[in-house]
Amino acid sequence: MSDRPPPSAPPLDKDELQRRLAHSAFINFLNLTVVSADPEKGEVVMRAAMRPEFERGRGTGQWHGGPIAAIIDTVGDYALVMQLGRPLPTVNFRVDYLRPAVATALRVTATVRRAGRLVGVVDIDVTDDEGRLVAVGRATYATAK
Amino acid sequence: MSDRPPPSAPPLDKDELQRRLAHSAFINFLNLTVVSADPEKGEVVMRAAMRPEFERGRGTGQWHGGPIAAIIDTVGDYALVMQLGRPLPTVNFRVDYLRPAVATALRVTATVRRAGRLVGVVDIDVTDDEGRLVAVGRATYATAK
Amino acid sequence: MSDRPPPSAPPLDKDELQRRLAHSAFINFLNLTVVSADPEKGEVVMRAAMRPEFERGRGTGQWHGGPIAAIIDTVGDYALVMQLGRPLPTVNFRVDYLRPAVATALRVTATVRRAGRLVGVVDIDVTDDEGRLVAVGRATYATAK
Amino acid sequence: MSDRPPPSAPPLDKDELQRRLAHSAFINFLNLTVVSADPEKGEVVMRAAMRPEFERGRGTGQWHGGPIAAIIDTVGDYALVMQLGRPLPTVNFRVDYLRPAVATALRVTATVRRAGRLVGVVDIDVTDDEGRLVAVGRATYATAK
Description:
The structure is a homotetramer. Chain A has about 140 residues and is α+β, with helices and mostly antiparallel strands. Chain A is built from 3 helices and 6 strands; from the N terminus they run ααββαββββ. Chain A has helices at about 15-20, 25-30, 65-85; strands spanning about 30-40, 45-50, 90-95, 105-115, 120-125, 135-140. The longest helix of chain A is centred in the middle third of the chain and has 20 residues, at about 65-85. Chain A starts with 13 loop residues before the first helix and ends with a strand. Chains in contact: A-B, A-C, A-D, B-C, B-D, C-D. Strand 3 of chain C pairs antiparallel with strand 3 of chain D, so a sheet runs across the interface.
């Protein structure tokens, strides 16, 4: 777990991250927009808009936890992808749900806590339109080449 | 965390669980079939079929981790719902990905480890058509009324 | 998981936290010093000094992960105890080890992310004497009375 | 995360595991006895006896969660060490506390769920003298050489 993993390429910018999101059928379905990408800080911000398939009860406007978990995993991954320039499989992650998210888009901020030779660890905060924290994630990705 | 939470009703059977899955727009989208439901053992088994929206790379037949996480959260929840007869919000959960799942349906087995007065803990195993373990989940749900 | 849990008393200050640490035989053994306690921010900082029993290899000065995990659980708990003024059992927690901690004291910062009616969630960062992050924790405690 | 990590040596037996536990000052302090070691099943069972330093409240006979977490991490690690024959650092782990453990030794069963090329995943169950489940752990260890 020592030190830095070798980057494969220069860090990716916002537009390149947005392009890569479209490569995956599932991620494309998640409907994410890259808001900002800062390789120095290891921070990516994305916005997720509601879709009818993501609702808990039909017509309630409440996000089901399932898509929130999937979004956390994905945005966390792309914080490391931004720095290392290659796909990185998820090893494991944890999600804590803090408040219902209703009639709101989600703002998702992923911050790299450590990019090691073997794995990287990323924290992900999810807030609603009022800036209230609705969920937090912590995820480990494989960085070994 | 002491002892048993009050059940709201008699345990739910397989058909009733299948009916309740349809109440949520997102769970409906997950496309789950209840295979078996054993309230005595605290065990529910469901089957998840692939959909094009769940693929990692388009046309590869490989499951993205996102829907696997959402399925783990949902099937784990229904193991407790079966026993307690009411909706139970997820407090938090962890997913570990063990192997890629390609060109396969998923068999998901959720087992209640503890149904306490405040929270319940459930283990979830996900296997492919060959019986290989592809992911494991551990989830905590709120059981307080 | 809605809203605020009822505090039992006014928030505890640094000296009162230090006194309460001594009530538990195990926590006493952990050898923690309260550095600061800010109920408004929901942040507690403690310092943990090495003991021979905490070493990985004898005489190496390297912290074993076991005491680091126990310290994370404890300091996280006291961030909520500070706000709510009563003992709060741990529901579950996760620890990620990021770097070896060698020949150093540990500085442990716990921050309340959410104090709900049923559970509270706390993030815990552990750094060494150089300010490097050596481990992170995320923990859920029961706040229900 | 594909396939088997290279073992460094033949699997370790019960006596060799017991000997290795003594190498670490902290693990020695944990006071563990190897009950059984089955490399085929990937299962190790250990017994942990109480010590005064492990008590929550002095003289209550109740285990503090801290030593339980440390024991979970350690026994889980040795399930993989048994199979691979070399030290394996912990990447991360989760502990769920299910019931108080009072006036009892702990029986700890660790089962390897997956030993991959990069990481291994182990489940750990902790029961009291009555066979009741008091805590469960799930841990990831680095298996890369």
